[in-house]
Amino acid sequence: MHYAVSDIHGCYDLYLDLLKRISFSESDTLFFLGDAADRGPDGIDVMKDLMRRPNVVCLLGNHEDMFRQAARGWGAKLTWNQGLEWNLSFRNWTERNGGDVTWEAWLALPEDERKELLAWMDGLPLYCETVVNGRAFLLAHAGVGTYRREKKLSSCDPFDFIWERMDYDRVYYKNKLLVTGHTPTGLIDPAYMGRILQRNNHIAIDCGAVFRGTLGCLCMETLEEIYVSNRE
Ligand SMILES: [Mn+2]
User: Fold this and answer.
1) What are the residue boundaries of the structural domains of the chain, listed by start?
2) Contact 188, 180 (CB under 8 A)
3) Which residues surround the ion ligand 1 when the cut-off is CB under 5 Å?
4) From ligand 1's centre to the CA of 34, what distance in Å?
């Protein structure tokens, strides 16, 4: 089976619960739509697990992007302007986006593991297209921000895929399901708080695990929703 999950945000226990719940095995494929770390406690553990599995396809999230930029600039020789820019983006990540816990864990890692992690983040694609059970899917962390029918996906800006907030009342694709994380479904429509939202050929799968304790997962063959929760 093929599954999609996103925005684990350091909830390592929930992630392991989910793998157990779906009996994830070598014959399955898991698409992870980005934001493995930050806010929650164990982001580095989540990343290390994702990267060692050959049947997990990971996409870049805005949090991986902030993380790798911080890691890359740290200790590097920067010009005055680059240093200023690095500082602003570092503070945006650690003070406003929950990256502080990840940064602390990162600093405690041996150098070879840091390099491995950084190379892994650098290699993450912005989106992925696939067909499962005759259904076409487009997966991206946040969406396809400036999408127009005549515009090639490969010419969209990275911002579109990892930061944009989508219009969920709009049908972006007639013959394709767009699967995204990034925006907790409760913020799109309060009726879907902690639940996956399927609407207008768009499936929003970020149930806000780190805020609400529920991690959602989509089975791409059946469009069935699977949930694990650490709430009583
Ligand atoms: Mn995000």
Assistant:
1) 2-229
2) no
3) 35, 61-62, 182
4) 7
Distance from residue 64's CA to the centre of ligand 1 (Å) = 9
Q: What is the mean pLDDT of each run of 10 residues along the chain (232 residues)?
A: 98 98 98 98 98 98 97 92 95 97 97 97 97 97 80 86 92 94 97 97 97 97 97 69
Q: How many Å lie between the centroid of ligand 1 and the Cα of residue 143?
A: 10
Q: Residue 205 Cα, ligand 1 centroid: separation in angstroms?
A: 12
Total Cβ atoms within 10 A of residue 226: 15
Q: Give the architecture (CATH level 2) of 2-229.
A: 4-Layer Sandwich (3.60)
pTM: 0.95
Phi, psi of 81 (to 5 degrees): -65, -40
Q: Which residues contact 182 (CB under 8 A, 6 or more apart)?
A: 6, 7, 33, 34, 35, 61, 62, 141, 142, 143, 162, 163, 165, 206
